[in-house]
Amino acid sequence: LEGARQHVELTEKWLRGGLESPEIAAECRPGQFIMVTVAETIDPLLRRPMAVYRILRGDDGAPRGFSMMVEVVGRGTALLEQKEAGDHLRVLGPLGVPFSMPETSPDSGAASPAERGEQLLVMGGVGSAPFPFFAEQLRSQGFRVRAFVGARTAEALLCVDDFEEMGIPVEVSTDDGTQGYHGFVVGPLEEYLDRHG
Q1: Where are the extended beta strands (E) located within the chain?
Q2: Which H/E stretch holds residue 12?
Q3: Which of 67, 111, 152, 178 would suit a FRET pair with 61, their CA atoms being 20 to 30 Å apart?
Q4: CA of 167: how far to CAs of 24, 55, 64, 106, 146, in Å?
């Protein structure tokens, strides 16, 4: 399918692109990805895999498209960066196995969402891209969510603003200590688990 594209540059290396495709958007589940053809010719030949970052909805709440995050690292992603709003791209998807949604325990019966516990999302770097969509779905089902986001440096942190906009508590860590906890993302996770059992 083809879709109209718009993009927002997040940093010098990252951009967020949106594709209009109600059919694909309606089928997407958190954790899935799409394959994008980056050029009109066969060079480069291979499609590029991109995680589904968020679902774009119309005023009526119906899925109208989806967005993806692109790290501009090579020739193929540089071609994506050159696209403009209104350009068309060929995509294949959604593909892949979606994340598993938590279930209530068998003995909990009709437990309230608060009794189901807090869902902890732990992510880092480019692997953060599918988690805002997952967080939205968890919240829509009444789960409490907390995000732990790590990256090499403060400039490489992704999705923190998304979680904050959703009112989700976020714990940040950077390998070099330029923002938040100094070290890997498992550090603040372990501290949180120690504090809360």
Answers
A1: 2-9, 14-20, 33-37, 48-51, 54-57, 63-71, 88-95, 118-124, 144-151, 170-174, 181-182
A2: none
A3: 111
A4: 27, 18, 24, 30, 10
Q: Read off the tokens for 9.
A: 């540059």
What is the CA angle 65-70-73, rounded to 5? 160
DSSP 8-state symbol, 135: H
pLDDT of residue 77: 62
Residue keyed to tokens 């594209």: 5
Provide mean pLDDT across the span 81-110. 76
Backbone angles phi, psi at 104, to 5 degrees: -70, 150
Q: Looking at 46-106, list the stretches that DSSP marks H as alpha helix, in order from N- to C-terminal side.
A: 75-81
**Most confident of the ranges 3-12, 58-67, 110-119:** 58-67
Q: Which of 53-67, 71-85, 120-134 has the lowest mean pLDDT?
A: 71-85
